[in-house]
């Protein structure tokens, strides 16, 4: 079963450029380690301190293999260093969801 991780960030609006660098690094790493990144969604209108990220792995086990690299893999450490050095992320919350896609609907032929 596909698992999608939704990360809700509170960011420092003064550090949006650093957050974008952080996001670009993680989009690449997710893709290189078996996931599909659906993108980061940055403030445009309304609250300027909220951002979201969504990415999927084919299973919870695949996600856990990816997570095992945190704090160990030099590329993962470097990506987190962008966040830590800039202070661009003030807080984040991770939620795991199961997607229901149009291709899952009865009668879908595509």
Features:
110 residues; Dimeric_a/b-barrel; NIPSNAP family protein; Alpha-Beta Plaits; alpha+beta; NIPSNAP
Protein model, in words:
The protein has a 4-stranded antiparallel β-sheet. Helix 1 runs antiparallel to helix 3 (74-86). It is built from 3 helices and 4 strands. It is globular, with a radius of gyration of 15 Å. The model has no long low-confidence stretch (mean pLDDT 92). With 110 residues, the chain is of the alpha+beta class. The protein has one domain (3-98): 2-Layer Sandwich (Alpha-Beta Plaits). Pfam families: NIPSNAP. It comes from Agromyces soli.
Write the layout of secondary structure elements.
Elements: E1 3-11, H1 16-32, E2 36-41, E3 50-57, H2 60-67, H3 74-86, E4 89-97
Antiparallel strand pairs: 1-3, 1-4, 2-3
Helix pairs in contact: 1-3
Protein name: NIPSNAP family protein
Pfam family, one: NIPSNAP
Domain NIPSNAP: 8-100
Q: How would you sum up the major sheet?
A: 4 strands, antiparallel
**In DSSP terms, counting alpha (H) and pi (I) runs of 4 or more, how many helices?**
3
CATH class: Alpha Beta
Low-confidence stretches: none
Fraction in beta strands: 25-35%
InterPro entries: Dimeric_a/b-barrel, NIPSNAP
Protein name: NIPSNAP family protein
Pfam families: NIPSNAP
Organism: Agromyces soli
